[in-house]
User: What shape does this take?
Amino acid sequence: QVQLVESGGGSVQAGGSLRLSCVASTMTLSRYCMGWFRQAPGKEREGVASIDKNGNARYADSVKGRFTIWQDNAKNTVYLEMNSLKPEDTAMYYCAAGRFFSMVVGTYDYWGQGTQVTVSS
Assistant: This one.
């Protein structure tokens, strides 16, 4: 059974930083495109960042210049470094694995359970 486990969420003040991690079991992440998504209460899940098998990354406009996605294949882990956090970044953050280099929820096949990020002003 494919399992993705996120960690690293927490509560920070605006301007702070967090690093999210997503570790995979029973799958090799380097064979997939990986994405980070978030969902705030009452809102749809949205793409935040994605990385393809060659290490190319793309970001949502709202996080460009503040968030960085990267992958450590030796650790079978994908990360999301979040800097200059804003209250509007508050959401449950999910990692996902899929076949396409995409920011679209429906193109990802495997999902983690999520980790909560709360940014206070």
About this structure: The first strand starts at residue 3 and ends at 7. The two ends are 40 Å apart (CA to CA). The chain has a mean pLDDT of 96.
